[in-house]
Amino acid sequence: MTRISADPSALARTKWHEYLSRFAFGGAVTVLASLIDSHWGPVIGGLFLAFPGIFPAGASLVEAHAEERKQEAGMEGTERGRQEASLEAAGASMGAVGLAAFAIVVWWGAPRHSLWMVLPLAGLAWAIASWALWCLRERL
Amino acid sequence: MDLLLRFVIGGLVVSAFSMLGDLFKPKSFAGLFAAAPTIALATMVLTLHKHGAHYLATDARSMASGAAAFCVYASACSIVLMHSKLKALAATALLMPVWALSAAAFWALWLRGLR
Question: Which DSSP letter does residue A113 get?
Answer without folding.
Answer: S
